[in-house]
Write a structure and sequence with these properties.
Length: 264
Amino acid sequence: MLDRLLTGVSPEIGRILEAALDKRELTVRDASLLLSAEGADFFALLRAADLARSEDNGDDVSFVVTRNINFTNVCYVGCTFCGFARHRDEADAYDHPLEVLLEKARDAVARGATELCIQGGIHPNKDHHHYRDILLAIKRERAHFRILQGHEALAAASLLQGGDGMVPGMANLAPALFVSLQAAADRGAAAECARLQQQVTAIARIYQQGPWLSALKAACAMLGLGNGRPAPPLAPAVPAAREAIAALLDEAGLGAAVGATHCR
Ligand code: SF4
């Protein structure tokens, strides 16, 4: 079975897939190579993943009942691919009050939801106080709900206010930084959180180098993660943006300038 699966696969990808199916832990470099797999390597990766899945779970199917609750569709970021965001003066712009969010959460739970994703645009008039209000209101009703947020600008504030964790895009680039921030918040070390937040804010300037997703993909590619190409209709970061991203990564001590011209 394994021989058939690895037919026509490059030796290095074959070695990695064999190790994975043997339940040996992959290195970061191995995982990064798999992210770049193409052609026969890519199809072997899919078959290996399916084989591992079937060994673990057979044909059982599992799922989570989840609901996305959007608190506002007002957003000033302006991603070119976005069909969700509205200017606050547009007729169909909305900004739900807390009671509406809670009602939607109750309705979702009554229908069997075990997971809620609280999402929204980046509203020009909302800051960490709004996040805290949502967090406290939900925790009052469902203390066991885990509440995560992804906006880098609110990282330290949301953790210090009782948030359970983060799902920030920049953690792809600097995971240790976010782990340190979480640990500092867990200790209630506000000054250290403030210092680490400055580093997070500095590295998050990468988002400003073009469409944020293109910029994030380019930065990841410079660190050896993926090929730097976002899914169409987004285009890869242009050369000037890649130069700026490489400089920001260098400034953050991630030493990526050498990769600035490598992502296409
Ligand atoms: S940040 Fe999100 S909501 Fe705002 S424009 Fe971009 S994709 Fe749309």
